[in-house]
Structure formats: structure tokens, C-alpha cells
Amino acid sequence: MRGVRAFEGGSTTLAGIGGGAMKGLLVLVVGVLALSSVPARAACDPVGGAQFICGIDAPEDLIRLPQTQWVLVSAMAEGKSHIYAVDSKTHAPVSLYPIEGAREVQDKKTYAACPGPLPKGTFGAHGIDLQPKGPGKHKLYAVNHSGRESIEVFDLDATGKTPSVTWIGCVVYPDGASGNSVVGLPDGGFITSNFKDPKDANAFQKMSEGKITGNVLEWHPGSGWKPLPGSDMSGANGVALSNDGKWLYVAGWPGKNVTRFERTGDSWTKRDSTPTGILTDNLRWMADGSLLAAGQDANMPAVFQCRPPCYVASAAVKIDPKTMKTTRLVNYAGNESFQGSTTVIDVGNEFWVGSFRGDRIARLPAK
């Protein structure tokens, strides 16, 4: 989720949000993640059955690095954005990018239109994804909002003691598009959700009203951008692709649903949608092949208006990718330590939970 300062117009709780209550609300959109931290950083002690990995500001997206002990984390706090690798055994984070002396070698054939590396101190990570390239090697895609609206692309090497990355290029979004999540494709292309027009000051107001704000876009080297037919939606968020590349799943954030698309040849067809009961944010594959949809157990726009002692609860729903049947797996009440989940992944016998605010990852037992 990309941050918003507030929906102004009076004090609002998580209950009783209706169309009339939302009328006249002003959305103030700011950089990447205005709500990146709680007013005072809470101690890193366990709370409500959760343990924490602290010191990572706004860990919005998480993904397991296959066949390793590492979890990649996209920390999107404004001015503090990094991609980290977190050791699932020691829970120690290692910053991968940006770092002093970061390797940058542009692939000018695949990413010829990329204007070059981001200026130093400019990075606004959001959704991330991995595409395997060989044993211990991956291509890493990261949605970026700082300096330009783009997908930044890296080569990731996991064969050493700790993972390392080399920036190799970027793809700038078309005018009027702002990414949220991304999934890589074998040819170096990708599919990404277009959450909203970055110049539309009323985008979050429109999401509160269920109005269309974006769609899903596909990019390939050589052929460039194209929208997926039938993908126009309000607040298009997480995306996930089946291993065979035939099925695409897209989270509708304000619509509290996941929509499924089927690929036939080079085209996509919208097939069906299932409700999740939560503001559906990022999608991740579980070890058992199920889809895990995480999000905030709240309503629009209360998810932004909630202030202590009000806290946004976190939740995740398991989805059978064939039947689209859902089962609630994660419920965690918001508190001063953690609130507003965006991503949930299964790591061993735990669920790791990311958020668009705060300074920590929550670790919950997988029951």
C-alpha cells in the first residue's frame, strides 16, 4: 500500500463508515509512506502472541528467497527505503540496496529506455518479486516511487554468505500510472498493478467510493507496455502468477476481493472473483501451493483515519487457487507495536507479517 497522510473531515473509528460519512473528505497524498511509523517506537517485546524483528521501517512486502534461509523485505518508509535480506534463523537484517558502493551495470539491450541508475539517496521501494535465473541466481523486480515511477531491476546472487544485488536497469511506468505490486516473467518482462494515477489527488477518495483508479499492466522487452483486458478496477494491488504462467491473481484492495485471469496464448481473460473480507493487499504463494492474501481488517477510509487508541487489525486469507475457496488463517489485533498488515508469508512454523507503517515485522505462530 502506498501511504496517505489522512482522510480529513473529523474523527472516525473503524466502525460506521458509510458513503455519507465519506462525502467531502480530502485526500492528501504524500511521497512514499507518510504513515511509516507510530508516534513513539514501542519496545521490541512480544505483544499479543507476536514476536518482532525490529529496526526495519515500513516493511511493506516480503518474499522468501528460494532454497535459502533468507527473506527479502521491501522497506518503503520515506527517506529510509531499502531492500533487506533477513536471516530467518538469526532474524538479523542485511541491507542489499541502496548501499555504499552498490553495483550498477545497466543492461542496455533489455532496458534501453531506462534513463540510468537512480540518483544517490533516491529510492522508494514498494512491491518486489523474484524470477529464477539458475542455481542461486535470480532477477529481482522492485516497484519504485522515488525520483520516478518505475520498476527497478536487479540481478540477485544468493550463492555467497549473504545475498547481493546488482542494479541492471529500469522500466518507467507510462504517464498516469503508479505501480503497487509486480510479478516477473521469464523473458525479462513483468506484470504489475497500476494502483492509481500519481497526479490524481482524489484517488483515495475514489477508492472509498469503489470507483476505478487503475488496472493491470504487462511489459515485455521490445514490445513495451499493454493493459490487460478487463482489468480496470479500484485500487489494483497485489499480483501473483501460477507456476505454469496460466493464471494471474490480482488483489482489489478497496473491493476486498481477489480476481483471477486466465492466459490463452498471448492474451488474458478475466474469469472470476472471490471476496476476502479484508482490504486485500499483497498476495504470496504458500509452501503448500495455496495463495495467501494479506491485508487490513478494516474499511476505507478508516484504515487511514485510525489513531491511538484505535489500531488497524491485521489479517490473512488462504485461497485455493483452483476453487477460489477462502479460509481465514491470520487474525492479529492492532496495538501500539504493530498494525495494518500488508503482506503475510509462511516461514517454517511461523507467519511473518509486514506492514505499511511502523518499524518491525511481526512473527506469529502458524497454528
Protein model, in words:
With 367 residues, the chain is mainly β. Helices cover 4% and strands 46% of the residues. The chain is built from 3 helices and 27 strands. Strand 11 and strand 12 (164-172) form a beta hairpin. The protein starts with 6 loop residues before the first strand and ends with a strand. The model is unreliable at 3-39 (pLDDT under 50).
SSE diagram, text form:
Elements: E1 7-8, H1 19-22, E2 26-27, E3 51-54, E4 59-64, E5 70-75, E6 82-87, E7 93-97, E8 103-104, E9 125-134, E10 137-144, E11 150-157, E12 164-172, E13 178-184, E14 190-196, H2 203-208, E15 215-220, E16 224-227, E17 236-241, E18 247-252, E19 257-264, E20 267-275, E21 279-285, E22 291-297, H3 302-305, E23 313-319, E24 326-332, E25 341-347, E26 350-355, E27 360-365
Parallel strand pairs: 8-12
Antiparallel strand pairs: 1-2, 3-27, 4-5, 5-6, 6-7, 9-10, 10-11, 11-12, 13-14, 14-15, 15-16, 17-18, 18-19, 19-20, 21-22, 22-23, 23-24, 25-26, 26-27
